[in-house]
């Protein structure tokens, strides 16, 4: 079974929060940082990983992504504040 990751990324001013899901977090964040795909995150310069959750099953991660996307920005900000109150780029850590 493939692991799954739900993640929140933002831009340098923290004005936009994007919610995503992937089976390879390191690769996916690198794609965001290099604007590999021309879409929402490239347009709004979302490339700073500020929050993520790990799941044993990608299906669980997809369900969690839907739950987060249905929630408000305030709820996403609360999640970030709990684990990353300074909104640092978590991708800069050791992989």
UniProtKB/TrEMBL annotation:
It holds the Pfam family GIY-YIG. Belongs to the UPF0213 family. SUPFAM superfamilies: GIY-YIG endonuclease. Gene3D superfamilies: GIY-YIG endonuclease. Residues 2-78 form the GIY-YIG domain. This is GIY-YIG nuclease family protein. InterPro entries: GIY-YIG_endonuc, GIY-YIG_endonuc_sf, UPF0213_domain. It comes from Lutibacter aestuarii. PROSITE patterns: GIY_YIG.
């Amino acid at each position: 079974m493939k692991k799954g990751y739900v993640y929140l990324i933002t831009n340098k001013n923290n004005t936009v929060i994007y919610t995503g899901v992937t089976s390879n977090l390191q690769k996916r964040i690198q794609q965001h940082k290099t604007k590999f795909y021309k879409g929402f995150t490239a347009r709004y310069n979302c490339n700073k990983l500020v929050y993520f959750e790990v799941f044993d099953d990608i299906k669980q991660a997809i369900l969690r992504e839907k739950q987060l996307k249905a929630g408000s920005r305030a709820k996403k900000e609360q999640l970030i504040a709990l684990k990353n109150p300074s909104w640092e780029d978590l991708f800069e850590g050791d992989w």
